Amino acid sequence: MDNRPIGIFDSGVGGLTVMREVMEQLPYENIIYLGDTARIPYGSKSEQTIKKYAHQCSAFLKGKDVKTIVIACNTASSIALDSLTDYFDIPVIGVIDPGARSASKATENGRIGVIGTTATINSYAYQEKIMEYRHDAEVIGIPCPLFVPIVEEGWEYSHVAELTAEKYLTELIEHDVDALVLGCTHYPILRYTIKKVVGPHVKLINPAFETAKDLKKLLNEKNLFNENYDIPRYEYYATDAPERLRRIGGNFLKKEIDNLYEIAIDNLS
Amino acid sequence: MDNRPIGIFDSGVGGLTVMREVMEQLPYENIIYLGDTARIPYGSKSEQTIKKYAHQCSAFLKGKDVKTIVIACNTASSIALDSLTDYFDIPVIGVIDPGARSASKATENGRIGVIGTTATINSYAYQEKIMEYRHDAEVIGIPCPLFVPIVEEGWEYSHVAELTAEKYLTELIEHDVDALVLGCTHYPILRYTIKKVVGPHVKLINPAFETAKDLKKLLNEKNLFNENYDIPRYEYYATDAPERLRRIGGNFLKKEIDNLYEIAIDNLS
Protein backbone atom coordinates (compact mmCIF):
# COMPACT_ATOMS: atom_id res chain seq x y z
CA MET A 1 0.00 0.00 0.00
CA ASP A 2 1.21 3.49 -0.82
CA ASN A 3 -0.69 6.60 0.21
CA ARG A 4 1.47 9.07 -1.70
CA PRO A 5 -0.48 11.03 -4.32
CA ILE A 6 -0.61 10.49 -8.07
CA GLY A 7 0.85 13.44 -9.99
CA ILE A 8 -0.82 14.62 -13.19
CA PHE A 9 0.37 17.47 -15.37
CA ASP A 10 -0.83 19.22 -18.48
CA SER A 11 -0.14 22.47 -20.31
CA GLY A 12 -3.40 23.89 -18.92
CA VAL A 13 -6.93 22.89 -18.00
CA GLY A 14 -7.40 20.13 -20.61
CA GLY A 15 -5.68 17.48 -18.52
CA LEU A 16 -8.54 17.71 -16.06
CA THR A 17 -10.44 15.38 -18.43
CA VAL A 18 -7.72 12.82 -17.60
CA MET A 19 -7.91 13.62 -13.89
CA ARG A 20 -11.67 13.09 -14.03
CA GLU A 21 -11.24 9.57 -15.45
CA VAL A 22 -8.58 8.80 -12.82
CA MET A 23 -10.89 10.03 -10.03
CA GLU A 24 -13.70 7.82 -11.33
CA GLN A 25 -11.62 4.69 -11.83
CA LEU A 26 -9.40 5.14 -8.74
CA PRO A 27 -11.70 6.81 -6.21
CA TYR A 28 -9.41 6.33 -3.19
CA GLU A 29 -6.26 7.88 -4.66
CA ASN A 30 -4.92 11.29 -3.66
CA ILE A 31 -4.08 13.41 -6.71
CA ILE A 32 -1.93 16.48 -7.36
CA TYR A 33 -2.70 18.29 -10.61
CA LEU A 34 -0.36 20.81 -12.24
CA GLY A 35 -1.56 23.00 -15.11
CA ASP A 36 1.31 24.92 -16.75
CA THR A 37 -1.06 27.75 -17.67
CA ALA A 38 1.75 30.34 -17.91
CA ARG A 39 3.13 28.58 -20.97
CA ILE A 40 0.02 27.10 -22.58
CA PRO A 41 -0.30 26.00 -25.36
CA TYR A 42 2.48 23.44 -25.85
CA GLY A 43 0.96 22.32 -29.17
CA SER A 44 2.53 25.01 -31.34
CA LYS A 45 6.00 24.97 -29.71
CA SER A 46 9.24 23.21 -30.66
CA GLU A 47 10.24 19.75 -29.40
CA GLN A 48 13.14 21.11 -27.38
CA THR A 49 10.95 23.63 -25.58
CA ILE A 50 8.19 21.08 -24.89
CA LYS A 51 10.75 18.66 -23.41
CA LYS A 52 12.14 21.35 -21.13
CA TYR A 53 8.66 22.32 -19.89
CA ALA A 54 7.70 18.65 -19.33
CA HIS A 55 10.84 18.09 -17.25
CA GLN A 56 10.14 21.15 -15.14
CA CYS A 57 6.53 20.07 -14.50
CA SER A 58 7.64 16.54 -13.57
CA ALA A 59 10.33 17.84 -11.24
CA PHE A 60 7.71 19.95 -9.46
CA LEU A 61 5.48 16.89 -8.97
CA LYS A 62 8.42 14.76 -7.85
CA GLY A 63 9.15 17.44 -5.27
CA LYS A 64 5.63 16.86 -3.95
CA ASP A 65 6.53 13.18 -3.40
CA VAL A 66 4.14 11.64 -5.93
CA LYS A 67 4.29 7.88 -6.50
CA THR A 68 3.71 8.09 -10.24
CA ILE A 69 3.46 10.77 -12.92
CA VAL A 70 0.73 10.92 -15.57
CA ILE A 71 1.45 13.14 -18.57
CA ALA A 72 -2.11 14.21 -19.36
CA CYS A 73 -1.03 16.39 -22.28
CA ASN A 74 -0.98 14.59 -25.64
CA THR A 75 1.68 16.93 -27.00
CA ALA A 76 4.01 16.39 -24.03
CA SER A 77 3.31 12.63 -24.05
CA SER A 78 4.18 12.38 -27.70
CA ILE A 79 7.46 14.25 -27.32
CA ALA A 80 8.74 13.85 -23.74
CA LEU A 81 7.62 10.43 -22.39
CA ASP A 82 10.86 8.53 -23.11
CA SER A 83 13.04 11.28 -21.75
CA LEU A 84 10.97 11.58 -18.54
CA THR A 85 10.93 7.78 -18.08
CA ASP A 86 14.74 7.73 -18.34
CA TYR A 87 15.21 10.61 -15.94
CA PHE A 88 12.79 9.93 -13.08
CA ASP A 89 12.90 6.95 -10.72
CA ILE A 90 9.10 6.60 -10.45
CA PRO A 91 6.74 5.25 -13.15
CA VAL A 92 5.70 7.81 -15.79
CA ILE A 93 2.81 7.13 -18.13
CA GLY A 94 1.52 9.12 -21.06
CA VAL A 95 -1.76 9.11 -22.97
CA ILE A 96 -0.42 8.02 -26.38
CA ASP A 97 0.21 4.33 -25.78
CA PRO A 98 -3.17 3.59 -24.15
CA GLY A 99 -4.99 5.52 -26.89
CA ALA A 100 -3.04 3.84 -29.71
CA ARG A 101 -3.56 0.34 -28.27
CA SER A 102 -7.28 0.88 -27.86
CA ALA A 103 -7.65 2.22 -31.43
CA SER A 104 -5.77 -0.80 -32.83
CA LYS A 105 -8.25 -3.10 -31.10
CA ALA A 106 -11.33 -1.07 -32.02
CA THR A 107 -10.81 -0.86 -35.80
CA GLU A 108 -12.22 -3.54 -38.07
CA ASN A 109 -11.11 -2.30 -41.49
CA GLY A 110 -7.66 -1.18 -40.24
CA ARG A 111 -8.23 2.48 -41.14
CA ILE A 112 -7.74 4.76 -38.14
CA GLY A 113 -7.98 8.53 -37.82
CA VAL A 114 -6.05 10.59 -35.26
CA ILE A 115 -6.87 14.21 -34.47
CA GLY A 116 -4.84 16.50 -32.21
CA THR A 117 -2.72 19.64 -32.03
CA THR A 118 -0.22 20.42 -34.77
CA ALA A 119 2.70 19.27 -32.58
CA THR A 120 1.01 15.98 -31.65
CA ILE A 121 0.14 15.12 -35.25
CA ASN A 122 3.52 16.24 -36.63
CA SER A 123 5.35 14.14 -34.03
CA TYR A 124 3.78 10.98 -35.60
CA ALA A 125 3.70 9.51 -32.07
CA TYR A 126 0.17 8.09 -32.38
CA GLN A 127 0.73 6.99 -35.95
CA GLU A 128 3.93 5.07 -35.10
CA LYS A 129 2.53 3.55 -31.91
CA ILE A 130 -0.59 2.32 -33.71
CA MET A 131 1.61 0.71 -36.40
CA GLU A 132 3.50 -1.15 -33.65
CA TYR A 133 0.24 -2.70 -32.48
CA ARG A 134 -1.16 -3.29 -35.94
CA HIS A 135 1.34 -3.39 -38.80
CA ASP A 136 -1.29 -3.32 -41.54
CA ALA A 137 -3.09 -0.24 -40.21
CA GLU A 138 -3.59 2.84 -42.35
CA VAL A 139 -3.41 5.88 -40.06
CA ILE A 140 -4.46 9.38 -41.07
CA GLY A 141 -3.54 12.26 -38.77
CA ILE A 142 -5.29 15.66 -38.96
CA PRO A 143 -4.31 18.67 -36.82
CA CYS A 144 -7.43 20.55 -35.59
CA PRO A 145 -6.16 23.76 -33.92
CA LEU A 146 -9.60 25.42 -33.71
CA PHE A 147 -11.11 22.72 -31.50
CA VAL A 148 -9.38 23.89 -28.31
CA PRO A 149 -10.60 27.51 -28.44
CA ILE A 150 -14.09 26.32 -29.43
CA VAL A 151 -14.23 24.17 -26.28
CA GLU A 152 -12.78 26.98 -24.14
CA GLU A 153 -15.54 29.29 -25.44
CA GLY A 154 -18.14 26.70 -24.40
CA TRP A 155 -19.27 26.45 -28.06
CA GLU A 156 -19.07 22.66 -28.30
CA TYR A 157 -22.66 22.29 -29.53
CA SER A 158 -22.64 25.34 -31.85
CA HIS A 159 -23.01 25.55 -35.60
CA VAL A 160 -19.44 26.92 -35.67
CA ALA A 161 -18.23 23.71 -33.99
CA GLU A 162 -20.10 21.54 -36.47
CA LEU A 163 -18.87 23.45 -39.51
CA THR A 164 -15.30 23.41 -38.21
CA ALA A 165 -15.54 19.66 -37.59
CA GLU A 166 -16.79 19.16 -41.15
CA LYS A 167 -13.81 21.12 -42.54
CA TYR A 168 -11.30 19.12 -40.53
CA LEU A 169 -12.88 15.66 -40.70
CA THR A 170 -14.13 15.29 -44.28
CA GLU A 171 -10.81 13.73 -45.30
CA LEU A 172 -11.23 11.05 -42.63
CA ILE A 173 -14.74 10.22 -43.85
CA GLU A 174 -13.44 9.98 -47.43
CA HIS A 175 -10.79 7.53 -46.21
CA ASP A 176 -13.50 5.45 -44.54
CA VAL A 177 -11.86 5.30 -41.09
CA ASP A 178 -13.83 3.28 -38.55
CA ALA A 179 -11.92 4.35 -35.42
CA LEU A 180 -10.92 7.87 -34.44
CA VAL A 181 -8.49 8.81 -31.64
CA LEU A 182 -9.43 12.04 -29.83
CA GLY A 183 -5.76 12.94 -29.44
CA CYS A 184 -6.09 16.13 -27.41
CA THR A 185 -7.48 16.45 -23.90
CA HIS A 186 -10.10 19.01 -24.96
CA TYR A 187 -11.65 16.88 -27.70
CA PRO A 188 -13.76 14.48 -25.59
CA ILE A 189 -15.90 17.53 -24.76
CA LEU A 190 -16.64 17.83 -28.51
CA ARG A 191 -17.45 14.13 -28.92
CA TYR A 192 -21.16 14.58 -29.72
CA THR A 193 -20.41 17.09 -32.48
CA ILE A 194 -17.56 14.95 -33.83
CA LYS A 195 -19.77 11.84 -33.79
CA LYS A 196 -22.50 13.72 -35.65
CA VAL A 197 -20.02 14.63 -38.40
CA VAL A 198 -18.15 11.33 -38.78
CA GLY A 199 -21.23 9.12 -38.37
CA PRO A 200 -22.33 6.46 -35.88
CA HIS A 201 -20.18 3.64 -37.33
CA VAL A 202 -16.90 5.40 -36.36
CA LYS A 203 -15.70 4.41 -32.87
CA LEU A 204 -14.32 7.35 -30.90
CA ILE A 205 -11.31 6.52 -28.74
CA ASN A 206 -10.82 8.65 -25.61
CA PRO A 207 -7.18 8.23 -24.47
CA ALA A 208 -8.07 9.76 -21.06
CA PHE A 209 -10.32 6.79 -20.29
CA GLU A 210 -7.74 4.27 -21.52
CA THR A 211 -4.93 5.97 -19.59
CA ALA A 212 -6.85 5.77 -16.31
CA LYS A 213 -7.38 2.04 -16.97
CA ASP A 214 -3.64 1.58 -17.58
CA LEU A 215 -2.80 3.55 -14.45
CA LYS A 216 -5.06 1.29 -12.38
CA LYS A 217 -3.32 -1.76 -13.80
CA LEU A 218 0.11 -0.26 -13.08
CA LEU A 219 -0.76 0.54 -9.45
CA ASN A 220 -2.07 -2.99 -9.03
CA GLU A 221 1.03 -4.64 -10.53
CA LYS A 222 3.45 -2.56 -8.49
CA ASN A 223 1.38 -2.81 -5.34
CA LEU A 224 0.95 0.95 -5.14
CA PHE A 225 -2.76 1.30 -4.32
CA ASN A 226 -3.73 3.62 -1.52
CA GLU A 227 -5.63 1.37 0.83
CA ASN A 228 -6.56 4.14 3.19
CA TYR A 229 -10.25 4.48 2.24
CA ASP A 230 -10.71 8.03 3.50
CA ILE A 231 -11.98 10.83 1.31
CA PRO A 232 -9.00 11.47 -0.99
CA ARG A 233 -7.22 14.81 -1.14
CA TYR A 234 -7.07 16.67 -4.43
CA GLU A 235 -4.63 19.57 -4.87
CA TYR A 236 -4.36 21.83 -7.91
CA TYR A 237 -1.45 24.02 -8.98
CA ALA A 238 -1.39 26.53 -11.84
CA THR A 239 1.62 28.46 -13.09
CA ASP A 240 -0.59 31.44 -14.01
CA ALA A 241 -4.16 32.76 -13.70
CA PRO A 242 -5.49 30.13 -11.25
CA GLU A 243 -8.96 31.69 -11.30
CA ARG A 244 -9.25 30.84 -14.98
CA LEU A 245 -8.37 27.21 -14.18
CA ARG A 246 -11.08 27.21 -11.52
CA ARG A 247 -13.68 28.73 -13.84
CA ILE A 248 -13.03 26.81 -17.08
CA GLY A 249 -11.71 23.71 -15.32
CA GLY A 250 -14.94 23.02 -13.49
CA ASN A 251 -16.54 22.27 -16.85
CA PHE A 252 -13.81 19.71 -17.63
CA LEU A 253 -13.75 18.09 -14.22
CA LYS A 254 -17.51 18.23 -13.49
CA LYS A 255 -16.52 19.04 -9.90
CA GLU A 256 -15.64 22.14 -7.88
CA ILE A 257 -11.92 22.95 -7.75
CA ASP A 258 -10.67 23.65 -4.22
CA ASN A 259 -7.13 23.57 -2.80
CA LEU A 260 -5.91 25.60 -5.77
CA TYR A 261 -2.50 27.29 -5.57
CA GLU A 262 -0.52 29.50 -7.91
CA ILE A 263 3.16 28.69 -8.28
CA ALA A 264 5.79 30.86 -9.94
CA ILE A 265 7.15 29.57 -13.22
CA ASP A 266 10.70 30.40 -12.07
CA ASN A 267 10.28 27.84 -9.28
CA LEU A 268 9.71 25.13 -11.86
CA SER A 269 13.33 24.44 -12.65
CA MET B 1 19.57 61.96 -37.71
CA ASP B 2 19.73 58.60 -35.99
CA ASN B 3 20.42 55.37 -37.87
CA ARG B 4 19.76 53.04 -34.94
CA PRO B 5 16.93 50.59 -35.61
CA ILE B 6 13.35 50.74 -34.40
CA GLY B 7 12.49 47.84 -32.07
CA ILE B 8 9.10 46.15 -32.34
CA PHE B 9 7.92 43.28 -30.19
CA ASP B 10 4.86 41.08 -30.00
CA SER B 11 3.86 37.79 -28.40
CA GLY B 12 4.19 36.11 -31.79
CA VAL B 13 3.65 36.70 -35.48
CA GLY B 14 0.68 39.10 -35.21
CA GLY B 15 2.87 42.15 -34.62
CA LEU B 16 4.16 41.78 -38.16
CA THR B 17 0.97 43.61 -39.26
CA VAL B 18 2.35 46.57 -37.27
CA MET B 19 5.82 46.12 -38.73
CA ARG B 20 4.28 46.11 -42.20
CA GLU B 21 2.64 49.50 -41.60
CA VAL B 22 5.90 50.89 -40.19
CA MET B 23 7.83 49.64 -43.22
CA GLU B 24 5.33 51.32 -45.54
CA GLN B 25 5.17 54.64 -43.74
CA LEU B 26 8.86 54.79 -42.77
CA PRO B 27 10.64 53.08 -45.68
CA TYR B 28 14.16 54.15 -44.70
CA GLU B 29 14.14 52.88 -41.12
CA ASN B 30 16.02 49.80 -39.93
CA ILE B 31 13.79 47.53 -37.85
CA ILE B 32 14.35 44.72 -35.35
CA TYR B 33 11.32 42.51 -34.71
CA LEU B 34 11.01 40.19 -31.72
CA GLY B 35 8.23 37.58 -31.56
CA ASP B 36 8.00 35.92 -28.14
CA THR B 37 6.71 32.72 -29.74
CA ALA B 38 7.83 30.52 -26.82
CA ARG B 39 5.26 32.17 -24.58
CA ILE B 40 2.46 33.04 -26.98
CA PRO B 41 -0.38 33.82 -26.37
CA TYR B 42 -0.21 36.66 -23.85
CA GLY B 43 -3.98 37.21 -24.12
CA SER B 44 -5.06 34.58 -21.62
CA LYS B 45 -2.34 35.26 -19.03
CA SER B 46 -2.30 37.36 -15.84
CA GLU B 47 -1.26 41.03 -15.69
CA GLN B 48 1.82 40.26 -13.61
CA THR B 49 3.07 37.65 -16.09
CA ILE B 50 2.37 39.85 -19.13
CA LYS B 51 4.31 42.73 -17.52
CA LYS B 52 7.29 40.47 -16.84
CA TYR B 53 7.33 39.19 -20.42
CA ALA B 54 7.01 42.72 -21.86
CA HIS B 55 9.96 43.91 -19.74
CA GLN B 56 12.11 40.99 -20.90
CA CYS B 57 11.26 41.64 -24.58
CA SER B 58 12.02 45.35 -24.21
CA ALA B 59 15.31 44.65 -22.46
CA PHE B 60 16.32 42.40 -25.35
CA LEU B 61 15.57 45.15 -27.88
CA LYS B 62 17.34 47.77 -25.75
CA GLY B 63 20.36 45.46 -25.78
CA LYS B 64 20.26 45.69 -29.58
CA ASP B 65 20.56 49.48 -29.27
CA VAL B 66 17.16 50.44 -30.67
CA LYS B 67 16.17 54.12 -30.68
CA THR B 68 12.53 53.47 -29.81
CA ILE B 69 10.33 50.53 -28.82
CA VAL B 70 6.94 49.78 -30.37
CA ILE B 71 4.73 47.38 -28.41
CA ALA B 72 2.89 45.78 -31.33
CA CYS B 73 0.87 43.49 -29.05
CA ASN B 74 -2.46 44.94 -27.93
CA THR B 75 -2.44 42.86 -24.76
CA ALA B 76 1.05 43.99 -23.73
CA SER B 77 0.26 47.61 -24.72
CA SER B 78 -2.86 47.62 -22.58
CA ILE B 79 -1.08 46.26 -19.53
CA ALA B 80 2.62 47.18 -19.68
CA LEU B 81 3.01 50.52 -21.52
CA ASP B 82 3.23 52.76 -18.43
CA SER B 83 5.62 50.47 -16.67
CA LEU B 84 7.91 50.21 -19.74
CA THR B 85 7.81 53.98 -20.28
CA ASP B 86 8.90 54.53 -16.67
CA TYR B 87 11.68 51.98 -16.85
CA PHE B 88 13.37 52.60 -20.20
CA ASP B 89 15.19 55.79 -21.25
CA ILE B 90 14.03 55.64 -24.88
CA PRO B 91 10.52 56.40 -26.19
CA VAL B 92 8.07 53.50 -25.95
CA ILE B 93 4.79 53.55 -27.83
CA GLY B 94 1.90 51.11 -27.78
CA VAL B 95 -1.02 50.51 -30.12
CA ILE B 96 -3.86 51.42 -27.72
CA ASP B 97 -3.60 55.20 -27.68
CA PRO B 98 -3.38 55.62 -31.49
CA GLY B 99 -6.30 53.22 -31.99
CA ALA B 100 -8.45 54.86 -29.31
CA ARG B 101 -7.79 58.38 -30.63
CA SER B 102 -8.66 57.40 -34.16
CA ALA B 103 -11.89 55.67 -33.08
CA SER B 104 -12.94 58.77 -31.10
CA LYS B 105 -12.54 60.87 -34.22
CA ALA B 106 -14.21 58.37 -36.56
CA THR B 107 -17.47 57.87 -34.67
CA GLU B 108 -20.46 60.10 -35.38
CA ASN B 109 -23.05 58.70 -32.99
CA GLY B 110 -20.52 58.17 -30.16
CA ARG B 111 -21.05 54.41 -30.02
CA ILE B 112 -17.78 52.52 -30.47
CA GLY B 113 -17.05 48.80 -30.46
CA VAL B 114 -13.71 47.27 -29.44
CA ILE B 115 -12.77 43.66 -30.17
CA GLY B 116 -9.64 41.91 -28.93
CA THR B 117 -8.28 39.11 -26.75
CA THR B 118 -9.83 38.40 -23.37
CA ALA B 119 -6.93 40.13 -21.56
CA THR B 120 -7.13 43.25 -23.76
CA ILE B 121 -10.89 43.64 -23.32
CA ASN B 122 -10.82 42.85 -19.59
CA SER B 123 -8.05 45.41 -19.03
CA TYR B 124 -10.49 48.17 -20.18
CA ALA B 125 -7.46 49.95 -21.68
CA TYR B 126 -9.19 50.84 -24.97
CA GLN B 127 -12.45 51.64 -23.24
CA GLU B 128 -10.80 54.06 -20.76
CA LYS B 129 -8.56 55.67 -23.35
CA ILE B 130 -11.51 56.30 -25.69
CA MET B 131 -13.44 57.91 -22.82
CA GLU B 132 -10.49 60.28 -22.24
CA TYR B 133 -10.77 61.48 -25.83
CA ARG B 134 -14.55 61.53 -25.91
CA HIS B 135 -16.32 61.70 -22.56
CA ASP B 136 -19.78 60.99 -23.95
CA ALA B 137 -18.75 57.86 -25.86
CA GLU B 138 -20.48 54.55 -25.25
CA VAL B 139 -17.88 51.81 -25.65
CA ILE B 140 -18.70 48.12 -25.95
CA GLY B 141 -15.84 45.61 -25.68
CA ILE B 142 -16.17 42.02 -26.92
CA PRO B 143 -13.41 39.38 -26.55
CA CYS B 144 -13.12 37.23 -29.70
CA PRO B 145 -10.68 34.41 -28.87
CA LEU B 146 -11.47 32.32 -31.96
CA PHE B 147 -10.34 34.99 -34.43
CA VAL B 148 -6.60 34.37 -33.88
CA PRO B 149 -6.66 30.62 -34.63
CA ILE B 150 -8.97 31.24 -37.61
CA VAL B 151 -6.40 33.64 -39.08
CA GLU B 152 -3.52 31.27 -38.28
CA GLU B 153 -5.39 28.48 -40.13
CA GLY B 154 -5.71 30.77 -43.16
CA TRP B 155 -9.51 30.53 -42.89
CA GLU B 156 -10.20 34.27 -42.97
CA TYR B 157 -12.67 34.03 -45.85
CA SER B 158 -14.38 30.81 -44.72
CA HIS B 159 -17.96 30.21 -43.65
CA VAL B 160 -16.56 29.33 -40.20
CA ALA B 161 -15.02 32.82 -40.01
CA GLU B 162 -18.28 34.47 -41.02
CA LEU B 163 -20.40 32.46 -38.59
CA THR B 164 -17.93 33.11 -35.77
CA ALA B 165 -17.95 36.84 -36.56
CA GLU B 166 -21.76 36.81 -36.44
CA LYS B 167 -21.72 35.15 -33.01
CA TYR B 168 -19.25 37.66 -31.61
CA LEU B 169 -20.44 40.84 -33.31
CA THR B 170 -24.26 40.68 -33.18
CA GLU B 171 -24.23 42.55 -29.87
CA LEU B 172 -22.29 45.41 -31.48
CA ILE B 173 -24.78 45.63 -34.35
CA GLU B 174 -27.67 45.70 -31.85
CA HIS B 175 -25.93 48.58 -30.05
CA ASP B 176 -25.64 50.43 -33.37
CA VAL B 177 -21.89 51.15 -33.15
CA ASP B 178 -20.52 53.13 -36.10
CA ALA B 179 -16.79 52.61 -35.38
CA LEU B 180 -15.05 49.36 -34.49
CA VAL B 181 -11.48 49.05 -33.20
CA LEU B 182 -9.69 45.90 -34.45
CA GLY B 183 -7.90 45.57 -31.10
CA CYS B 184 -5.69 42.57 -31.89
CA THR B 185 -2.88 42.39 -34.41
CA HIS B 186 -4.45 39.43 -36.24
CA TYR B 187 -7.80 41.05 -36.84
CA PRO B 188 -6.94 43.33 -39.80
CA ILE B 189 -6.52 40.10 -41.80
CA LEU B 190 -10.20 39.35 -41.07
CA ARG B 191 -11.37 42.85 -42.01
CA TYR B 192 -13.38 41.83 -45.10
CA THR B 193 -15.30 39.18 -43.16
CA ILE B 194 -15.85 41.55 -40.23
CA LYS B 195 -17.04 44.32 -42.57
CA LYS B 196 -19.46 41.93 -44.24
CA VAL B 197 -21.00 41.09 -40.86
CA VAL B 198 -21.14 44.58 -39.29
CA GLY B 199 -22.15 46.38 -42.47
CA PRO B 200 -20.61 49.11 -44.65
CA HIS B 201 -21.58 52.04 -42.37
CA VAL B 202 -19.29 50.84 -39.55
CA LYS B 203 -15.77 52.30 -39.81
CA LEU B 204 -13.06 49.76 -39.00
CA ILE B 205 -10.09 51.21 -37.08
CA ASN B 206 -6.73 49.48 -37.58
CA PRO B 207 -4.45 50.50 -34.68
CA ALA B 208 -1.39 49.21 -36.59
CA PHE B 209 -1.88 51.91 -39.23
CA GLU B 210 -2.48 54.63 -36.61
CA THR B 211 0.54 53.51 -34.57
CA ALA B 212 2.86 53.78 -37.58
CA LYS B 213 1.54 57.31 -38.14
CA ASP B 214 2.24 58.20 -34.49
CA LEU B 215 5.71 56.68 -34.71
CA LYS B 216 6.51 58.81 -37.74
CA LYS B 217 5.37 61.91 -35.88
CA LEU B 218 7.47 60.96 -32.85
CA LEU B 219 10.64 60.40 -34.91
CA ASN B 220 10.06 63.75 -36.57
CA GLU B 221 9.54 65.65 -33.30
CA LYS B 222 12.56 64.09 -31.62
CA ASN B 223 14.72 64.37 -34.72
CA LEU B 224 15.28 60.62 -34.86
CA PHE B 225 14.77 59.90 -38.58
CA ASN B 226 17.33 57.74 -40.30
CA GLU B 227 18.56 59.92 -43.11
CA ASN B 228 20.77 57.27 -44.60
CA TYR B 229 18.66 56.38 -47.63
CA ASP B 230 20.14 52.93 -48.20
CA ILE B 231 18.05 49.80 -48.33
CA PRO B 232 17.07 49.34 -44.69
CA ARG B 233 18.03 46.26 -42.69
CA TYR B 234 15.29 44.13 -41.16
CA GLU B 235 16.12 41.55 -38.48
CA TYR B 236 13.73 39.08 -36.92
CA TYR B 237 14.08 37.19 -33.63
CA ALA B 238 11.81 34.45 -32.31
CA THR B 239 11.99 32.82 -28.87
CA ASP B 240 10.78 29.50 -30.32
CA ALA B 241 10.00 27.74 -33.62
CA PRO B 242 11.41 30.42 -35.99
CA GLU B 243 10.35 28.40 -39.04
CA ARG B 244 6.72 28.83 -38.01
CA LEU B 245 7.28 32.61 -37.83
CA ARG B 246 8.76 32.51 -41.32
CA ARG B 247 5.91 30.42 -42.74
CA ILE B 248 2.90 32.09 -41.12
CA GLY B 249 4.55 35.50 -40.81
CA GLY B 250 5.00 35.93 -44.54
CA ASN B 251 1.22 36.13 -44.85
CA PHE B 252 1.11 38.97 -42.29
CA LEU B 253 4.07 40.89 -43.63
CA LYS B 254 3.43 40.32 -47.37
CA LYS B 255 7.20 40.00 -47.70
CA GLU B 256 9.80 37.24 -47.34
CA ILE B 257 11.36 36.96 -43.88
CA ASP B 258 15.17 36.79 -43.96
CA ASN B 259 17.70 37.47 -41.20
CA LEU B 260 15.69 35.34 -38.81
CA TYR B 261 17.30 34.15 -35.56
CA GLU B 262 16.16 32.02 -32.68
CA ILE B 263 17.01 33.26 -29.21
CA ALA B 264 16.70 31.30 -25.97
CA ILE B 265 14.00 32.48 -23.65
CA ASP B 266 16.42 32.26 -20.69
CA ASN B 267 18.51 34.97 -22.35
CA LEU B 268 15.54 37.31 -22.17
CA SER B 269 16.01 38.40 -18.56
Just name the CATH architecture of the largest domain in chain A: 3-Layer(aba) Sandwich
Proportion of helical residues of chain A: 40-55%
Main-sheet strand order of chain A equals: 4-3-1-2-9-10
Mean pLDDT of chain A: 94
Oligomeric state of the chains present here: homodimer
CATH class of the largest domain in chain A: Alpha Beta
Q: What's the β-strand tally of chain A?
A: 10
Radius of gyration of chain A: 18 Å
Strand content of chain A: 15-25%
Main β sheet profile of chain A: 6 strands, parallel
| Shape by Cα distribution of chain A | globular
Element-level helix/strand string of chain A: EHEHEHEHEHHEHHEHEHEHE
CATH topology of the largest domain in chain A: Rossmann fold
Biggest interface found: A-B, 26 and 26 residues
SSE class of chain A: alpha/beta
Q: Give me the number of helical elements of chain A.
A: 11
Low-confidence stretches of chain A: none
Distance between the termini of chain A: 31 Å
> In the residues of chain A, how many domains can be counted?
2
How would you sum up this structure, described in words?
The structure is a homodimer of 269-residue chains. With 269 residues, chain A is an alpha/beta fold. Chain A folds into two domains: 149 residues, Rossmann fold; 112 residues, Rossmann fold (3-Layer(aba) Sandwich), CATH 3.40.50.1860. Helix content of chain A is 46%, strand content 16%. Chain A is built from eleven helices and ten strands. The relative contact order of chain A is 0.20. Chains A and B meet through helix 7 and helix 8 of A and helix 7 and helix 8 of B.
